[in-house]
UniProtKB/TrEMBL annotation, chain B:
Family: Belongs to the bacterial solute-binding protein ModA family.
Signal peptide positions on this chain: 1-28
Species name: Micromonospora deserti
Name listed for the protein in its UniProt record: Molybdate ABC transporter substrate-binding protein
Domain of life: Bacteria
Keywords for the protein's UniProt record, in alphabetical order: Metal-binding, Molybdenum, Signal
UniProt keyword annotation of Signal present: yes
Matches recorded under InterPro entries: ModA (IPR005950), ModA/WtpA (IPR050682)
Residues bound to molybdate: S49, S77, V180, Y198
Matching PANTHER family: MOLYBDATE-BINDING PERIPLASMIC PROTEIN (PTHR30632), SULFATE-BINDING PROTEIN (PTHR30632:SF0)
Gene Ontology molecular function, alphabetical: metal ion binding; molybdate ion binding
Protein's GO biological process: molybdate ion transport
Presence of keyword Ribosomal protein: no
Automatic annotation (TrEMBL), chain C:
Similarity section: Belongs to the binding-protein-dependent transport system permease family. CysTW subfamily.
Keywords (A to Z) from UniProt: Cell membrane, Membrane, Molybdenum, Transmembrane, Transmembrane helix, Transport
Main subcellular location of this protein, as a coarse class: membrane
Function: Part of the binding-protein-dependent transport system for molybdenum; probably responsible for the translocation of the substrate across the membrane.
Highest taxon, organism lineage: Bacteria
Gene Ontology molecular function, alphabetical: molybdate ion transmembrane transporter activity
Gene: modB
Pfam family, one: BPD_transp_1
Identification of the protein by name: Molybdenum transport system permease
Residues annotated as domain ABC transmembrane type-1: 59-260
């Protein structure tokens, strides 16, 4: 096998099965040696990207972050479209880019496939020719390349559109052709740059499900760059969250959604998040507001709760052990079937309430209310580590 | 280049002296026979080969006739004839060939009969110093010798054809140039070894080419006719200018340029 | 039913008079001289004049040399355009300005300049003659060279513009699929700029076809070898205006026919 040798891609045409992978034997995945081992350091003027990244064979990792976080730069560095300033990109044991050792493999010789944000299907070629382009460049003869392409188009359900040009395809179809084109060279690493961003909501739902299926079948590593948390949660096994060029949080979907560590992540997963000091069942947040929490811990801590857990009252509520504080309505927006109320006060929180409650409480900006959250609805966890 | 410039300056000084001498005694010419005052602008359409000599003649004329201004339009004779036929505002037409003049007279665009004011003879212009030892038309057929002629549609080409026929020389040139300057330029640049051109052109370029006279040129002399254009905007000045060209002063300038004058 | 044409007229977007008027004037300005040629054409003697062997020879030579000149321009001009569009090198602005020199230079001067380089005593001409026995002046190759010199800026400028306008991310996409720089250029970049390339080639060909000054200065005028249609037209003007008109019309008709045919073929891509 070529795993230890030069990183030349083999193409699907080499073997009868289009998805057979030359580098990765799924039975022999070793957790201590991920397929992709990268430390991406790119200086671009005042901006510095510094992201360590490890992706195992068969694993799908989502690089999630706001615009300008450096996600696309990271993807371009992995593809060889932008050189690293420092660090390394090592794929299957081969250094594709390591400035310290002057190691550099140009894009066209990296076993990397890319699905670009707006697909970049070659406008002068048919869908079939687009998919066959990669295999042809890897020395496969024309006939075999076309067969490979046809088989991939069939897999993405576009066999009957093989002879259409990109401009005759719908957005969803173009996305699938782009995926087929990237997979037809059987890349060790598949990169997807906002693969669903250009689609309308309805198409996105179907395409996302389909993409999930194909990513599941991909034997190599896959890295998905997105700013859409839903894409990340549905498609990825693991999330790496990047803000301003740095990783701020990393983990599986359950961990990240339950325990966000930054304002951005909390907003992404729809939680109120506050940082404070814990002392047993009490966490002091904001301007000295003491929140009673279900978890018991000490020291630097996060407290998270869902907007729907926040109840609003015209006067201070009596009775059950609740956290209550006076707040001012800053704004009201539609949020699904409910309304989301932004509240100012000792802490800034979002509360989801029914339209009926809004009418009853006369919730308009500037209105003073009391907010309440049950201790059982909160989740507190250490901020360190 | 320097040598040439000096020579030009010297020629200009000589001309100025001549003008000064002749100009004094000729003041009466300001009023021609019919009594109309000679003043204003004279528009002269003249063959391109007259550029240098007519420019000087024009300056002399202006000096002799204060209040006049001579404006030239130098171009190929046939192009000028076509312009006059299309109603261009010309006062005087000086052609390098009777054929172009005929176009104008036949169309009724001439006021009176054209008069020949100069003759131009052909010679062979060769690379400076005559390295190939050309002595006559017959030498031009030697293998390895490249020759430029004018196209037969233009006067210098027609004249060359006459001369070559008279000498019974069958010549294959490498190019048939659109005008005599083009043919001469090819010799100057060394692209051809020889070209059959007018004496005046060879004289103007004598710093860069060597002239070789040949006897058959006597049978292929080119006449330069001049005429006042019918409906000339300034007929009085036009007649005065035509007379000046054919007068003593004009002839002196033309002779110096290499023309023969009648 | 009656109101339909009115409705259709109302729906058409308005054309501002400030644009329409100069547009029409511009068209008239371009077409009127052509009308003049047509009006003066001696239609009666046309077939006889066109059948003259010298005319056909000059026409064939014109078409051949303009086509060869265009091929030469493509061969040299497209890489030059690519260099100007894609490679940032010191002095690029100067080089870009130099490329347009043949546009500004009077063609006759261009012809003299070519003689100074490729002529018998030229910088390269002597060496070419001694080493390879190649002499360019007064040969059909010289005509091609002169036409290419004058016409190449049209191609380079058009292709450079197309290259600058093309989305370079397609080239990145090609690289991720395993295409090296050369394959990317031939398989992706060139097809992407094909319309600009075609437009440039057409401009180049048309300019080469009408070339006069540089050709007569560098290659001279000899029927069958270097006398192209514009040279024949110019010489015809010396003696016979009508013949010149006929030759011009013929050149015009042939070139318009060829360009129209090409446009249908490959300038408007499917």
């Amino acid at each position: 096998m070529s795993a230890a040798g030069e990183p030349r891609r083999r193409v699907a045409g080499d073997t009868p099965l289009p998805h057979a992978h030359p580098v990765v034997d799924r039975g022999a995945i070793r957790l201590d040696a991920p397929l992709l081992d990268a430390h991406l350091v790119v200086d671009r003027g005042a901006f510095r990207l510094d992201v360590p990244l490890r992706v195992a064979a068969g694993e799908v990792v989502a690089l999630l972050g706001p615009n300008g976080a450096g996600k696309t730069t990271a993807l371009r560095a992995l593809a060889g479209l932008h050189p690293l300033t420092a660090g390394h990109v090592t794929l299957a044991g081969v250094d594709l880019d390591r400035p310290a050792r002057r190691a550099w493999v140009p894009t066209e010789r990296r076993p990397v496939g890319v699905v670009f944000q707006d697909y970049l299907l070659f406008p002068h070629l048919t869908a079939l020719e687009n998919v066959a382009f990669g295999p042809r460049r890897h020395g496969v003869d024309r006939r075999t390349a076309r067969e490979t392409a046809r088989s991939w188009l069939t897999r993405v359900g576009l066999a009957e559109h093989a002879h259409r040009r990109p401009r005759q395809l719908s957005g969803g179809q173009a996305q699938r052709v782009a995926l087929a084109r990237a997979l037809a060279v059987a890349p060790s690493l598949l990169l997807l740059d906002e693969p669903l961003a250009a689609l309308d909501a309805r198409t996105r739902l179907d395409t996302r499900a389909e993409l999930h299926r194909h990513l599941g079948a991909h034997p190599g590593a896959a890295l998905l760059v997105t700013h859409d948390p839903l894409d990340a949660l549905v498609l990825a096994d693991r999330l790496v969250i990047v803000e301003a060029g740095r990783v701020v949080q990393e983990g599986d979907a359950a961990t990240v959604t339950a325990r966000p560590r930054t304002e951005y992540v909390a907003r992404l997963v729809g939680l109120n998040l506050h940082r404070g000091r814990a002392d047993g069942h009490t966490v002091r947040v904001g301007d000295g507001l003491a929140l009673t929490v279900a978890d018991r811990l000490d020291g630097d801590a996060f407290v998270a709760f869902r907007p729907s857990a926040v109840a609003l009252h015209p006067t201070r509520p009596e009775g059950s052990p609740r956290n209550t504080w006076p707040a001012t309505v800053a704004g009201v927006q539609r949020h699904g079937d409910n309304l989301r109320v932004q509240l100012d006060g000792p802490i800034t929180v979002a509360a989801d309430v029914t339209p009926a409650a809004v009418a009853q409480l006369h919730l308009t900006p500037g209105q003073r209310v009391w907010a309440a959250v049950k201790a059982a609805e909160t989740h507190a966890y250490p901020a360190a580590g | 280049m320097r040598a040439r410039a000096t020579r030009a300056v010297r020629a200009a000084v000589a001309a100025a002296v001549v003008v000064g001498l002749v100009g004094c005694g000729d003041g009466a010419a300001s009023t021609p026979a019919d009594g109309a005052a000679v003043t204003g602008t004279v528009m002269v359409f003249a063959a391109a080969s007259l550029t240098e000599s007519f420019t000087r003649i024009g300056r002399d004329f202006e000096a002799d006739h204060p209040g006049t201004s001579v404006v030239f339009n130098f171009a190929g004779s046939s192009a000028l004839a076509a312009q006059i036929a299309q109603g261009a505002p010309a006062d005087v037409f000086a052609a390098a060939a009777p054929r172009s003049m005929a176009t104008v007279t036949e169309a009724g665009d001439a006021d009176g009969e054209p008069a020949v004011f100069a003759r131009n003879q052909l010679l062979i212009a060769v690379t400076e110093g005559n390295p190939k030892g050309v002595t006559g038309l017959a030498d031009l057929t030697r293998p390895g010798l490249t020759v430029a002629l004018c196209a037969e549609q233009v006067p210098c080409g027609a004249a060359a054809r006459t001369a070559l026929d008279a000498a019974a020389v069958r010549l294959t040139p490498v190019t048939l140039e659109q005008d005599v300057r083009g043919a001469l330029a090819k010799v100057k640049l060394g692209e051809v070894d020889a070209a059959v051109v007018y004496r005046t052109d060879a004289k103007a370029a004598e710093a860069e080419v060597t002239a070789v006279e040949f006897p058959e040129s006597a049978g292929a002399v080119n006449d330069y006719p001049i005429v006042v254009v019918a409906h000339a905007p300034n007929p009085a000045a036009a007649r005065a200018f035509a007379a000046h060209v054919r007068g003593e002063q004009g002839r002196a300038v033309l002779t110096e340029a290499g023309f023969q004058t009648p | 039913m009656v109101s339909r044409p009115v409705a259709a007229r109302r729906r058409r977007p308005g054309v501002p008079v400030a644009l329409l008027l100069p547009a029409l004037l511009g068209l008239v300005f371009l077409v009127l001289p052509l009308a003049g040629l047509l009006a003066r054409a001696p239609w009666g003697s046309l077939p006889r004049r066109l059948a003259e062997p010298e005319v056909l020879t000059a026409l064939r030579l014109s078409l051949q040399s303009a086509t060869l000149a265009t091929l030469l321009c493509l061969l040299l001009g497209v890489p030059l355009a690519w260099l100007l569009a894609r490679v940032a090198f010191p002095g690029r602005r100067l080089v870009r300005a130099l490329v347009t020199v043949p546009l500004v230079l009077p063609p006759v001067v261009g012809g003299v300049a070519l003689l100074l380089v490729f002529g018998r005593r030229g910088l390269l001409g002597g060496w070419l003659d001694e080493t390879f026995g190649i002499t360019l002046p007064f040969s059909t190759a010289g005509v091609v060279l002169a036409e290419a010199f004058v016409a190449m800026p049209f191609l380079v400028i058009a292709v450079e513009g197309a290259l600058r306008g093309a989305d370079q991310r397609y080239e990145e996409a090609a690289a991720t699929l395993g295409a090296g720089p050369w394959t990317t250029f031939t398989h992706v970049t060139l097809p992407l700029v094909a319309p600009g390339l075609a437009a440039g080639a057409v401009l180049c060909w048309a300019r080469a076809l009408g070339e006069f000054g540089a050709t007569i200065t560098f290659a001279g005028n000899y029927p069958g070898r270097t006398q192209t249609m514009p040279l024949a037209v110019y010489l015809a003007l010396e003696t016979d205006l009508q013949a010149a008109v006929v030759l011009s019309l013929m050149l015009l008709a042939v070139s318009v026919t060829i360009l129209a045919a090409l446009r249908d073929r490959w300038i408007t891509s499917p």
